[in-house]
Design goal:
globular; 61 residues; single chain; 11% helix; 2 strands; alpha+beta
Length: 61
């Protein structure tokens, strides 16, 4: 299996195509890096809303 250096040496991530809506802003979501759990669709967020909600990254260097 070939590893992509642009992705930190990890293999390319499988993307899932669909027709979802962001639970926060209502924006259409057409591609996700995971298959969403139907029981958790009310927590699905677009990339922009997710970036606002996630905790800041720590730099351990």
């Amino acid at each position: 299996m070939a590893f992509n250096q642009d992705n930190g040496g990890f293999p390319p991530r499988k993307m899932y195509q669909g027709d979802w809506k962001c639970s926060k802003c209502g924006k259409a979501i057409t591609e996700l890096p995971f298959e969403p759990d139907p029981a958790r669709m009310s927590n699905l967020m677009c990339r922009d809303c997710y970036r606002e909600e996630r905790p800041p990254r720590r730099n351990f260097r």
